[in-house]
């Protein structure tokens, strides 16, 4: 084999290996930056990063009012449809004087939260995205994110923040 062809082959092989390694590093970095899906969360005051985010898919076939045990709460109506099991569990290791949970989705979603002190529902906190804001007691909260229409499933991001 001529020396020129051998050098060209070595350079081409080196370029392919370099591109492969670069793409693998990029894929790993992207995966580490994406928030977890259907994750359970444990936080204390002054948590980091703030906002903390988790992702999921909204929807289900169980009416929101059935899971909430009522048709309405002080924070809004218990509408839409959810799965029987909660999408997330939020463990607060201390009391929060202010905490906001907000869903961001391209479609109409709802939120139901059960925890110390009661049950809260919301449909349209900001546009078609639900959210709950206020004082939160220490303890475990179950969180359902549903879709307004039965059997419709949409991606969402749940953002948790102490920032007013």
Overview of the molecule:
By secondary structure, the chain is of the alpha+beta class. Helix content is 22%, strand content 40%. It contains two helices and 13 strands; from the N terminus they run H-E-E-E-H-E-E-E-E-E-E-E-E-E-E. The longest helix is centred in the N-terminal third of the chain and has 31 residues, at 3-33. The radius of gyration is 22 Å and the shape is globular. It starts with a helix and ends with a strand. Mean pLDDT is 85; it is low at 17-34.
Short description:
The chain is of the alpha+beta class and 164 residues long. It is 22% helix and 40% strand.
What is the element layout, followed by pairings?
Layout: H1 3-33, E1 41-43, E2 52-57, E3 62-63, H2 64-68, E4 72-73, E5 76-77, E6 81-82, E7 88-92, E8 96-104, E9 109-115, E10 118-122, E11 131-136, E12 139-147, E13 155-161
Parallel strand pairs: 1-7
Antiparallel strand pairs: 2-13, 3-6, 4-5, 7-12, 8-11, 8-13, 9-10, 9-12
Portion of residues in beta strands equals 35-45%
Give me the secondary-structure category: alpha+beta
The side-by-side strand order for the widest beta sheet comes to 1-7-12-9-10
Our measurement of the CA-to-CA distance between the termini, rounded to an integer number of angstroms, reads 70 Å
Major sheet = 5 strands, mixed
Q: What is the CA-based Rg, rounded?
A: 22 Å
Number of helices: 2
SS elements, strand count = 13
């Amino acid at each position: 084999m001529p020396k020129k062809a051998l050098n060209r082959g070595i350079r081409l092989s080196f370029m392919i290996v370099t591109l492969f390694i670069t793409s693998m590093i990029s894929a790993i970095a992207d995966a580490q930056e994406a928030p977890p899906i259907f994750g359970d969360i444990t936080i204390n005051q002054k948590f980091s990063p703030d906002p903390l985010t988790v992702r999921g898919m909204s929807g289900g076939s169980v009416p929101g009012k059935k899971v909430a045990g009522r048709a309405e709460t002080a924070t809004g109506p218990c509408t839409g449809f959810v799965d029987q099991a909660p999408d997330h569990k939020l463990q607060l290791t201390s009391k929060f004087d202010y905490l906001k949970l907000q869903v961001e989705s391209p479609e109409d979603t709802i939120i139901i939260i059960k925890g110390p002190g009661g049950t809260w529902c919301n449909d349209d906190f900001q546009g078609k995205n639900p959210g709950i804001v206020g004082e939160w007691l220490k303890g475990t909260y179950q969180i359902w994110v549903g879709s307004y229409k039965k059997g419709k499933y949409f991606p969402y991001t749940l953002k948790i923040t102490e920032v007013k």
